[in-house]
Amino acid sequence: MTYLDHAATTPVLPSALEAFVREASRLGNPSSLHSDGRRARAVLETSRERIAHALGAESAEVILTAGGCEADTLAVVGAARAARRADPGRTRAVTSAVEHHAVLESVHALADEGGEAVLVPVGADGVIDLAALEAEIAEHAARTGVVSVMWANNETGAIQPVAEVVELVRRHGGNAVAVHSDAVQAVGHVPVDFGASGLDALSLSGHKLGAPAGIGALLAQRTLPLAPVVLGSGQERGVRSGTVPVALATALAVAVEHAVATLEAERARLVPLRDELAAGVLALVPGARLNGPVGPAAGDGGGRLPGHVHLTFPGADVDALLFVLDAAGISASAGAACVAGVTQPSHVLLAAGDDERDARSVLRLTLGSTTTADDVARVLAVLPDAVERARSAGRVAARRG
Ligand code: PLP
């Protein structure tokens, strides 16, 4: 099998699995006061410290969550609600049009409760329009509770100018506006230093970097007011209730440390494979387009994540394409959400100016720890014919209306 869907989830690192199994076989709720509980608490706090240390944060800034969606919701909804409670005039939640649905749905939920959702446009390369963001913040800083701009896009792999976002929000809004970044696709793949970033909050997710699914974290400065979103017994600074899964936290610590330690070597290994794959597809498949920041300005992975190849094949039925690839032993992704079995046009490509038809005909190939040159060769051998068959299926579907 050739697995090219690492951005969806990536294999669990053996040492993370080992740490998980070892800890899962032990007893103790970290909130209990007896010795089993105290032992579990000590393991949890060590894991928290290791995660913090690997990412330039302090232990007290690590709020463990069930994953990326939960961390995003806590950051965006939690910060916006807290800001509004302190100052009812702070109603605006500002984000980019290409965010993950966890952030987009959060700002829409805030709008449903009387807030204002502002989606800042992106350019044709999917990168946020900083001038538009600056115009928005300059005019409305006093009415803004939270700004959330992702570190890297999950579909195109476009890396967003987070440092510039922080700088301009601080310049116009000081520290009163919370700045969050969804770094779920970035952590472990490009350098991320929470302390140096100047962000108030940053989301990450374990199963994107070698931990099992079901664990993630929100890094949040201690001074950031957050209204709790998951209510209950008050764990995790009182903003994320629920018994913390110590075994998963341990696995997350092992995986984050490993991903950060091997980041540069993996980047140096993957970028040439990524570029060979992209160049091969463009040469072999008529009409294929590569999405996201491309060309010299994108540098050696600086503009795009090292493992992302996001392609448009105009006229192709992407469900048929995935089916043909799967039959050939290649796991890939539609690059756009699938709702009730129907592939939706990619909101990321629509925001970048594509029409609905093209925004449906997309394929995301994401490379990772298991990817080799043989995988790239295999995809290049199969893809031209697979796209041709998917285009035939697309013509049949178009005729049927
Ligand atoms: N944010 C981004 C950018 C993602 O790519 C994902 C997962 O695909 C998420 C958030 C959600 O993460 P999780 O699956 O851990 O909830």
From TrEMBL:
Keyword Iron set for record: yes
InterPro entries named in the record: Aminotrans_V_dom, Aminotrans_V_PyrdxlP_BS, Cysteine_dSase, PyrdxlP-dep_Trfase, PyrdxlP-dep_Trfase_major, PyrdxlP-dep_Trfase_small
A single MF term (Gene Ontology): cysteine desulfurase activity
Presence of the UniProt keyword Membrane in the record: no
Gene3D superfamilies linked: 1.10.260.50, Aspartate Aminotransferase, domain 1, Type I PLP-dependent aspartate aminotransferase-like (Major domain)
Leading EC class: transferase
Domain Aminotransferase class V per the UniProt entry, residue ranges: 2-379
Annotated coiled-coil segments of the chain: none
The enzyme's E.C. designation: 2.8.1.7
Catalytic reaction annotation: (sulfur carrier)-H + L-cysteine = (sulfur carrier)-SH + L-alanine
PROSITE patterns the record matches: AA_TRANSFER_CLASS_5
The family this protein is said to belong to: Belongs to the class-V pyridoxal-phosphate-dependent aminotransferase family. NifS/IscS subfamily.
Protein name: cysteine desulfurase
